[in-house]
Automatic annotation (TrEMBL):
GO terms for biological process: folic acid catabolic process. Belongs to the peptidase M20A family. GO terms for cellular component: cytoplasm. This is Peptidase M20 domain-containing protein 2. InterPro entries: Amidohydrolase, Bact_exopeptidase_dim_dom, Peptidase_M20, Peptidase_M20/M20A_hydrolases, Peptidase_M20_dimer, Xaa-Arg_dipeptidase. It comes from Arthrobacter bambusae. Gene3D superfamilies: 3.30.70.360, Zn peptidases. Pfam families: M20_dimer (PF07687), Peptidase_M20 (PF01546). Residues 194-280 form the Peptidase M20 dimerisation domain. One of its GO terms (molecular function) is para-aminobenzoyl-glutamate hydrolase activity.
């Protein structure tokens, strides 16, 4: 490893120093106490009024209204993506971005706890605003819709809203407190086979069976799984398979989701899966159309320094945060973390043993335990940003990475 790389690595993993410590901590705590009713009210309102990916207009309006009341200004221009926004407080050269997720799932509401995610990020932003001038930071809040589907953060990256960012932060609802984890890179496709209809009994030989193409592709994918890179996952559901049992299906459609520990291996999987899909078309005589669904998600890279600073801060709130680098699910925060130092800890509260993406998990999202997690997580994120902003070596590292 070159000397410059060694220096960068040592800075990233250095033990967090005490910030201007007690005074800053008291300011953060005081700000959270001041804004507590609004922060928790936001969490409860979003939880009670779930909106699907890309349609989170009421949630975005609620967050924007709260930020305006706290003195945040809104950037010009705003992001093109509906239900997104960009707001800021302060003028410091170190720009701390808080990513606000607020989309829900069909029929089961906030079964991934994004109301907790949103309120925690907003709480951290309000707390950091109280020390922005003292620490020479700009607090930037980005409304990032459609995490569950198309990946709003990737769209905001493409529009340039992360170009001035020095570090990016958010926390995700969970059953336990964990930091340092990665995520799986992910790509999603809509698959369409088109054949030719015919009477299934009177003239089956005149038809081209699009459903057969899909069955062949499913079989080929199942057999190919053994040769995929370790840790890879390929999921497929049939969304259309014909209109009547006595008609040869002229159209078959499926959704395919591919995950891997790295974006590099994801490309390998995509090539293999595409060949399996092409095999179905070739064998059946159908035509094939593959359409990417949303943006591809890169794997998450959590900054070691920020992770340790977060753990230290959370310990003062009575929370023991585990450090675990294992990949968990997929997130468009992975794409952000490929660009700037980032943190995306799991924020634990009592979910009664329920798993993510279940109605049981959603039911716990406005509990007293979830409320405490919102405030504790906001404190942890804010203090981690303060630690980095107060440490000259870390500040230099973050500013240098941004300019490079």
């Amino acid at each position: 490893m070159k000397a410059a790389a060694l220096k960068a690595a040592s800075l990233e993993t250095a033990t967090p120093v005490t910030t201007r410590s007690a005074a800053v901590g008291r300011s953060i705590s005081a700000a959270l106490e001041r804004w507590e009713p609004e922060i928790l009210g936001l969490s409860h309102a979003i939880h009670a009024d779930p909106e699907l990916s890309g349609q989170e207009f009421r949630a975005a309006k609620r967050v924007s209204r709260l930020l305006r009341s706290a003195g945040f200004s809104f950037d010009d221009p705003q992001p093109v993506l509906p239900a997104s926004f960009s707001a800021r407080f302060g003028t410091g050269e170190l720009v701390v971005a808080l990513c606000v997720e607020y989309d829900a799932l069909p029929t089961i509401g906030h079964a991934c706890g994004h109301n907790v995610n949103a309120a925690c990020a907003v709480g951290a932003a309000l707390a950091l605003a109280s020390v922005a001038d003292e620490l020479g930071i700009t607090v930037k809040v980005l409304g990032t819709p459609a995490e569950e589907t198309s990946g709003g953060k990737v769209d905001l990256i493409g529009e340039g809203f992360f170009e001035d960012v020095s570090l990016a932060m958010m926390a995700h609802a969970g059953a336990e407190d964990v930091v340092g984890g990665s995520s799986l890179a992910m790509g999603m496709w809509d698959v369409l086979y088109e054949g030719r209809p015919a009477h299934a009994a009177a003239a089956p030989s005149e038809g081209v069976n699009a459903l057969d193409a899909l069955v062949i592709a499913q079989t080929a994918i199942a057999l190919a799984r053994q040769q995929l890179p370790p840790g890879s996952v390929v999921s497929l559901i049939v969304t259309e398979g014909g209109s009547a049992v006595n008609v040869i299906p002229e159209r078959a459609r499926a959704s395919v989701e591919m995950r891997s520990p790295s974006i590099k291996n994801l490309r390998v999987i995509e090539e293999r899966v595409r060949r399996c899909l092409e095999a179905g078309a070739l064998a059946s005589g159908s035509t094939l159309k593959v359409t990417p669904t949303g943006n591809a998600y890169a794997e998450l890279r959590q900054d070691r320094y920020l992770s340790e600073a977060y753990r230290t801060a959370m310990s003062t709130r009575g929370r023991a945060v585990e450090f675990n680098e294992d990949p968990v699910a997929s997130t468009d925060m992975g794409n952000v973390s490929q660009l700037v130092p980032s943190i995306h800890p799991l924020l634990g509260y009592d979910v009664g043993g329920a798993a993510h993406h279940t109605a049981e998990f959603a039911a716990h999202g406005s509990s007293a335990s979830a409320d405490r997690a919102v405030l504790d997580g906001a404190f942890g994120l804010a203090l981690a940003a303060c630690a980095a902003a107060s440490d000259p070596r870390q500040r230099e590292r973050l500013l240098t990475r941004r300019t490079n």
